[in-house]
Specification:
The chain has 365 residues and is α/β, with parallel strands linked by helices. It has 13 helices and 12 strands.
């Protein structure tokens, strides 16, 4: 897929941040030791959590690698691995990164709490850790993600808009993400802030490992428990689960609005077809490039002050330098102005076969 336009769209932010870097001591968490000054010849470890969600291999990995290469004049190397939703495997992968003597580690944790000891081991060996997308516990030096509470609010508010007057009479099903992912708790918090008191929540689930098949089974159970005529909408925390949910709804002959997140290609096509109401578009380029910026700065012993304008707290650390990226509600009405404008997908990629007529009707081009 062509991603050049994504990098261009967010590149201005990263370039301006890079221009402001200094050689001051890198800070973060409670760790005040500076890395030895290094040049561009650095080794970056990159650990992503799973491959069930399309975004990690299609967006995050190549964007991070591309930006690190750009920032280091092509001299840095990136050691990469994916944990495939296995927290024990990810702990082993951290050990391997330590053995391979990476200078800095970008970590998207499978289990934010379980990875704490591994983070400590890396830091004890002089390897600073950037928490990526999920706020891992332990002495991390920096963090980048989206405003996850706002993501949940965006989803909840969109669902209420889609329901209209039906919100007063029917029930919805809430399909939250995995309890091992701290982001899932924040999405849930934001969604409840939008939905509570405005619509009855008939059933609510925390979906193991974010898996679509688990969401499908949960949805089937909800339909059985509530009755198909009582369900007026479904809050789904992400697009992968939305796919499993919609399969269950179709099998039961139910057509109600369903939310999502990540703007996966299949979800965008479902939105075009009217099967899914919305997704949350999260521009991955700014997030990925911020992670690359912070990782390179930490490896080179530079300050994060010009990059990380926010501070967040984890369960174990306070005041972590952070970059939080805003999000957009993606519906059939703004596909041209979001994923197509930013070069994430082309109209040809979205409007294949059975979706072409709907795309034409919506003016997607």
């Amino acid at each position: 897929m062509r991603r050049a336009a994504v990098a261009v769209a967010a590149g201005a932010m990263a370039v301006s941040l890079a221009a402001c870097g200094s050689a001051e001591e890198a800070g973060g968490g409670n760790d005040s030791t500076a890395s030895a000054a290094k040049g561009d010849d650095i080794k970056v470890g990159l650990l992503l959590p799973e491959n069930q969600t399309a975004r990690y291999e299609k967006f995050d990995r190549p964007l991070i690698q591309q930006k690190i290469k750009e920032l280091t004049n092509g001299k840095a190397t990136v050691d990469y691995n994916n944990a495939k939703q296995d927290a024990n495997l990810q702990a082993q992968q951290v050990d391997t990164m330590i053995t391979n003597k990476v200078d800095v580690l970008i970590l998207d944790a499978v289990d934010a709490k379980a990875i704490k000891n591994s983070v400590q081991k890396a830091v004890d060996q002089g390897i600073k850790v950037v928490a990526y997308d999920r706020l891992a516990e332990g002495p991390i030096s920096a963090y980048t993600s989206f405003d996850n509470v706002q993501v949940g609010k965006t989803q909840g508010e969109a669902l209420l808009k889609a329901l209209g007057d039906k919100a007063k009479d029917g029930q919805i099903v809430m399909m939250n993400g995995s309890v091992t992912d701290p982001n899932a708790a924040q999405f849930k918090e934001g969604a409840h802030a939008a939905l509570d008191g405005k619509v009855k929540i008939g059933k609510e689930y925390d979906t193991k490992e974010w898996k679509p098949e688990n969401a499908n089974a949960n949805m089937e159970a909800a339909i059985s428990a509530l009755g198909k005529d009582k369900i007026v909408g479904v809050y789904s925390a992400n697009d992968g689960m939305a796919g499993g949910i919609i399969t269950a709804l179709k099998a039961a002959g139910i057509d109600v609005p369903v939310t999502g997140q990540d703007a996966e290609l299949a979800a965008v096509q479902r939105i075009v077809a009217g099967e899914q109401y919305m997704s949350v578009y999260k521009p991955y380029a700014p997030e990925a490039e911020a992670a690359a910026e912070m990782a390179v700065a930490l490896a080179q012993g530079k300050s994060l002050d010009s990059v990380a304008k926010d501070k967040v707290d984890s369960g174990s650390e306070k005041g972590i330098p952070s970059v939080l990226v805003p999000v957009t509600s993606l519906t059939k009405d703004n596909i041209n102005d979001t994923v197509i404008k930013d070069g994430v997908y082309t109209a040809a990629e979205i409007c294949t076969g059975k979706y072409k007529a709907a795309c034409d009707k919506l003016g997607i081009k």
